[in-house]
Automatic annotation (TrEMBL):
Name of the protein this chain belongs to: N-succinylarginine dihydrolase
Pathway: Amino-acid degradation; L-arginine degradation via AST pathway; L-glutamate and succinate from L-arginine: step 2/5
Similarity-based family: Belongs to the succinylarginine dihydrolase family.
EC number: 3.5.3.23
Encoding gene per record: astB
Assembly mode: Homodimer.
Length: 447
C-alpha cells in the first residue's frame, strides 16, 4: 500500500448557497440567518482553495453540488402541481421548509460520508458510508445523491464499496467524516480510525449536551466500523465533551484535526482527555506508530475563540519534506489569541511548520471552514487510476469551472429570492452543464 496519497474532495458550492439559519447548534449559521449570500463568490472562493492546493502538488478533487430545490422532498410533504406551483405554495405555507429544500449544504463534504482506506479494511477495498445527517431536515436527504455521486466516481466494485446511509433514526445519527479521524504512520500504512461521538442512544447514564443537539451517536460510529470491516484493535471510540457542543462545537472537526501520526486538539475536546489519548496510543502501537499529540490549552485559545476562528477546522496536510502545513481560514489571522498561538506553533520546531490561509468567508458564515469543505480519501496509485478522473482538480478543469460559475451563479440571494421560480430553473441548468464538464452524464436524477 505504499505510494498511497490522500485526496481531498472539496465540495463545489452549489448555485443556491444562502443563509437560512437552519443549523441549531451551529453558531455561525444562526448568527447569519437571513443575510444576503453571494453564491458566485462562494463557489469561486472554494475553487481558489482547490486550485491553490492542487498547484502545490496536493491530490485534489471535487464532489459536485446537489440538485436544488429538492422537489422530491417538497412533493413528498404535499406540495403539488408544476415546479413553479410547488415553489409558490412552499413559499406561502412553509418558507423555512422551502429554504431547507434549497440548502447548498452538500458543499460541506466532510459530512458526505465516512471513508476507510483499503489498508484498514478486512476485504482490502476502500469503504464509504454516506452519512444520513438526520439531525437536520435540510441535510437529511443529502445521502441519496451523495451515494449516487460516490458510486459514479468510485464505480469499480473490486476496489471500492459505497454503503447506503445508516437507518435514518436518532439512534444512528451520523455526520460522516466530521467526527472521524484517521491516524497512521503514513497514508499508505495501516491506520487507526478514531470515531468521536456526541451521545449514546442506549446508555442513559452517558453524558449529553443540554443546550444544543449532539448529532453523532456511538451506535452510528460502531455500525460504520462494522460495515467497513475495521480491525477492533485499530479503532478508538471516544466521547466528545458535551460542554463544548453546548458552546457551538457541533462536530468534532470544530475542535480537533488529525493527520499522519499527529492529533491537533483543544484540551476541552473530549469528555475524558487522558483516557482518549491512552486509547489512541495503544491503538497506534498496534499499527507500529507513535502518537504525536499537540494540545492547545484554554489559556492560550479559549473555546469561544476556537469556534469563532475555526482554528481546528483546518486541514493538516503532509508535505513531501515530512513536515505538515495547516490550512486555515482567514478568520484565524484576525483573532488575536489564535494568531498568536499559530505563530508559536509554526516556530516551535514541531511537525507543523507552515500556515496556508484562504478567504472562505461565504462558507464560514454558515459554519463551514476549510476542513468542512473537504472529504479525505486515501487511495493507492492503482485506486486513484480506477476512480473517475473527471473530478480531479487540474488547471484545465479550473479553467472550465470558473466561467461555468460566472455563467450560472447569482451574486446575491436574499430569503425572498427563494420564491423566484426562475432560481430553480437556473440551478437545474447549471447542473446539466456540470454533468458534461465533469464527464458524469446521468449524475443527477433530474426526472
Ligand atoms: N463541521 C463540518 N464538518 N461541517 C460544517 C457543516 C455546516 C452546516 N451548516 C449549515 O447547514 C447551515 C445552513 C443554513 O443555515 O442555511 C451544518 O451545520 O451542518
Amino acid at each position: 500500500m505504499l505510494g498511497a496519497r490522500e485526496f481531498n474532495f472539496d465540495g463545489l458550492v452549489g448555485p443556491s448557497h444562502n443563509y437560512a439559519g437552519l443549523s441549531f447548534g451551529n453558531v455561525a449559521s444562526f448568527n447569519n440567518v437571513r443575510s444576503a449570500s453571494n453564491p458566485r463568490q462562494a463557489a469561486l472562493q472554494g475553487l481558489a482553495k482547490m486550485r491553490a492546493l492542487a498547484q502545490r502538488g496536493f491530490a485534489q478533487a471535487l464532489l459536485p453540488p446537489q440538485a436544488r430545490p429538492n422537489f422530491r422532498m417538497l412533493r413528498a410533504i404535499g406540495f403539488s402541481g408544476t415546479d413553479a406551483d410547488v415553489v409558490a405554495q412552499a413559499w406561502r405555507d412553509a418558507p423555512v421548509i422551502l429554504a431547507c429544500a434549497y440548502s447548498a449544504a452538500p458543499m460541506w463534504t466532510a459530512n458526505a460520508a465516512t471513508v476507510s482506506p483499503s489498508a484498514d479494511t478486512l476485504d482490502g477495498r476502500v469503504h464509504f458510508t454516506s452519512a444520513n445527517l438526520n439531525n437536520k431536515l435540510h441535510r437529511s436527504e443529502e445521502h441519496r445523491q451523495a451515494t449516487r455521486t460516490l458510486r459514479a466516481i468510485f464505480a469499480d466494485q473490486e476496489r471500492f464499496v459505497v454503503h447506503d446511509a445508516l437507518p435514518p433514526t436518532p439512534a444512528f445519527g451520523d455526520e460522516g467524516a466530521a467526527n472521524h479521524t484517521r491516524l497512521a504512520r503514513e497514508h499508505g500504512s495501516a491506520g487507526v480510525e478514531f470515531f468521536v461521538y456526541g451521545r449514546v442512544e442506549f446508555d442513559p447514564s452517558a453524558p449529553f449536551p443540554k443546550k444544543y443537539p449532539a448529532r453523532q451517536t456511538l451506535e452510528a460510529s460502531q455500525a460504520i466500523a462494522r460495515l467497513h470491516g475495521l480491525n477492533p484493535a485499530q479503532v478508538v471510540f471516544a466521547q466528545q465533551n458535551p460542554a463544548v457542543i453546548d458552546q457551538g462545537v457541533f462536530h468534532n472537526d470544530v475542535i480537533a484535526v488529525g493527520n499522519g501520526n499527529v492529533l491537533f486538539y483543544h484540551e476541552q475536546a473530549f469528555a475524558d482527555e487522558q483516557e482518549t489519548l491512552a486509547a489512541l496510543r495503544v491503538a497506534m502501537e498496534n499499527v507500529d506508530a507513535g502518537l504525536t499529540a499537540i494540545r492547545v490549552d484554554s489559556a492560550d485559545v479559549p473555546v469561544a475563540d476556537a469556534v469563532a476562528s475555526y482554528l481546528f477546522n483546518s486541514q493538516l496536510l503532509s508535505k513531501p519534506d515530512g513536515k505538515m502545513a495547516l490550512v486555515v481560514p482567514h478568520e484565524c489571522h484576525e483573532n488575536p489569541a489564535v494568531a498568536r498561538y499559530l505563530g508559536q506553533l509554526t516556530a516551535s520546531g514541531g511537525p507543523v511548520d507552515e500556515l496556508v490561509e484562504f478567504d472562505l468567508r461565504q462558507s464560514m458564515r454558515n459554519g463551514g471552514g476549510p476542513a468542512c469543505l473537504r472529504l479525505r480519501v486515501v487511495l493507492t496509485d492503482e485506486e486513484a487510476r480506477a476512480m473517475h478522473q473527471g473530478v480531479i482538480m487540474t488547471e484545465a478543469l479550473y479553467a472550465r469551472l470558473v466561467p461555468w460559475v460566472e455563467k450560472h451563479y447569482r451574486d446575491r440571494i436574499e430569503p425572498k429570492d427563494l420564491a423566484d421560480p426562475q432560481l430553480a430553473i437556473e440551478c437545474m441548468a447549471a447542473l446539466e452543464d456540470l454533468e458534461t464538464i465533469l464527464g458524469l452524464p446521468g449524475l443527477y436524477d433530474l426526472s
